[in-house]
Structure formats: C-alpha cells, structure tokens
C-alpha cells in the first residue's frame, strides 16, 4: 500500500460516520479515545490495495467512505469476491487473533477513505487493559456467526433466499451499522454472483423477478429496496 495515501487527522464528519459503527459505539470511552488517538485516515483511489493475501497483519481498519472488496485469485487466474465492506464496517481483526497471515486480498472498490489503527498501537492499547481483547473478540464473533450462517445457506437454501439475505446483509453492513440502513445497495450483479457462487444470469433473473414483484428496483451499479419487509419475507428472516 502506498504510504502517500495517508493523512493525519480525522474530521468531525468522519468521526460521525465512525460513531455509526455498532461495535465502536459500544466500546468504553477510554478505548474509543485510544483508538482515535492512535489511528490515521487513509484516502485510497479506486483499485488501490489495502493488503494482499499472505501479508502479515498490520492492524485493523474501518471504512469511512467508499467500499472495500475482499477476494482471491485462483491458480487458474480466475478471480472471486467473497465480501464487500462499506461504512462503517471494521475489518482486519482475524490475523490479529491467531498471528497468521491475511486470508484474502483487500482493495478499494471505488475511491475510499479508511481509518487505520496500526498493529503496534493496537497491541499497546490492548496491553493497557487486557479486558479489551473481549471487546475486540465480539467483532470477530459477530462475523463468525454470519459466516457460519452463510455456509449453511449455501448448502440448504435456494438461490432466491440466499440472494435476498445477501442484500439484507449488505444493507445492514453485516450487522455493524447502528443507524437505520439505507434503501440502496451499491453492488453489481456480477459481484453478487461471485459472492453467492451463482451465475450472473441467475442473479439477473432473480432480481428481475423481485423487481416485477415490486420488492426491489434494479439500477445501474446497484439495487434499490422498495419494500424492506417483503425483502425479509423473501429472505425468510424475521424483522
């Protein structure tokens, strides 16, 4: 990652976005202050790498604006996208817990702004109060629960249900947003297909079906949710 993309301070507007993170908002004030004091803001152009698969951990990140894609390249050269993070989602904590390497490539899907808490500072913050490990663990466990649910969906649920649940996860920032979610998801049909292991044609057919039912509206580069309640019905999840 190019060091030139770093800036030195967080603005009041960016801080407001950060406080929209359910995980960050639940931290004790001293932990929040330590994170803010030790972090830096990064402005990344579209396509800029955050980290590569196999890299050593360099800390954790929060998306302030834009979006970050996570994926991998197979030996055949075929690429995949497994997840998409938008504001105010945190990521990068997995390698912190096991000391292992990064599990996926991460890059800015569009011009994006991230908050980066470097590993050396995070390690010190956690050493100051070991109970903070539990708070960081909650972030990891929330993602683990969702990942296990997605694996179960892959094995048991039909494509329509999986697609509806994916749209809900994206709307809600995978459970990390405090505020009421917006009604639009900025994601292409191709990327939805990669995330769900479905063909683009299948995704298109399912979206058009939901559009005819006036649940969603397909837009260029994304999906607008017309009826969140009926989308939840399609996903077979409770409100």
TrEMBL record:
<dbReference type="GO" id="GO:0003700">
    <property type="term" value="F:DNA-binding transcription factor activity"/>
</dbReference>
<dbReference type="InterPro" id="IPR018490">
    <property type="entry name" value="cNMP-bd_dom_sf"/>
</dbReference>
<dbReference type="InterPro" id="IPR036390">
    <property type="entry name" value="WH_DNA-bd_sf"/>
</dbReference>
<dbReference type="InterPro" id="IPR014710">
    <property type="entry name" value="RmlC-like_jellyroll"/>
</dbReference>
<feature type="domain" description="HTH crp-type">
    <location>
        <begin position="157"/>
        <end position="229"/>
    </location>
</feature>
<dbReference type="Pfam" id="PF13545">
    <property type="entry name" value="HTH_Crp_2"/>
</dbReference>
<dbReference type="InterPro" id="IPR012318">
    <property type="entry name" value="HTH_CRP"/>
</dbReference>
<keyword id="KW-0238">DNA-binding</keyword>
<feature type="domain" description="Cyclic nucleotide-binding">
    <location>
        <begin position="23"/>
        <end position="143"/>
    </location>
</feature>
<dbReference type="InterPro" id="IPR050397">
    <property type="entry name" value="Env_Response_Regulators"/>
</dbReference>
<keyword id="KW-0805">Transcription regulation</keyword>
<keyword id="KW-0804">Transcription</keyword>
<protein>
    <recommendedName>
        <fullName>Crp/Fnr family transcriptional regulator</fullName>
    </recommendedName>
</protein>
<dbReference type="InterPro" id="IPR000595">
    <property type="entry name" value="cNMP-bd_dom"/>
</dbReference>
<dbReference type="Pfam" id="PF00027">
    <property type="entry name" value="cNMP_binding"/>
</dbReference>
<dbReference type="GO" id="GO:0005829">
    <property type="term" value="C:cytosol"/>
</dbReference>
<dbReference type="GO" id="GO:0003677">
    <property type="term" value="F:DNA binding"/>
</dbReference>
<dbReference type="InterPro" id="IPR036388">
    <property type="entry name" value="WH-like_DNA-bd_sf"/>
</dbReference>
């Amino acid at each position: 990652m190019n060091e030139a993309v770093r800036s030195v301070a967080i603005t009041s507007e960016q801080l407001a976005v950060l406080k929209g993170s359910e995980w960050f908002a639940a931290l004790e004030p001293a932990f929040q202050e330590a994170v803010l004091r030790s972090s830096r803001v990064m402005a990344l152009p579209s396509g800029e790498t955050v980290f590569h698969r196999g890299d050593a951990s360099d800390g954790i990140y929060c998306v302030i604006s834009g979006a970050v894609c996570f994926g991998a390249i197979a030996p055949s050269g075929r690429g995949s996208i497994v997840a998409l993070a938008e504001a105010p989602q945190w990521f990068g904590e997995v390698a912190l817990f096991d000391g292992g390497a990064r599990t996926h490539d991460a890059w800015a899907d569009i011009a994006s702004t991230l908050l980066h808490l470097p590993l050396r500072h995070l390690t010190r913050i956690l050493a100051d109060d070991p109970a903070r490990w539990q708070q960081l663990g909650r972030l990891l466990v929330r993602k683990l629960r969702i990942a296990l649910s997605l694996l179960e969906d892959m094995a048991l649920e039909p494509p329509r249900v999986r697609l509806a649940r994916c749209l809900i996860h994206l709307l809600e920032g995978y459970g990390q947003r405090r505020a009421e979610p917006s009604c639009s998801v900025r994601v292409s049909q191709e990327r939805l297909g990669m995330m769900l292991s479905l063909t683009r044609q299948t995704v298109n057919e399912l979206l058009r079906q939901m559009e005819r039912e006036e649940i969603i509206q397909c837009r260029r580069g994304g999906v607008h949710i017309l009826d969140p309640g009926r989308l939840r019905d399609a996903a077979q999840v409770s409100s």
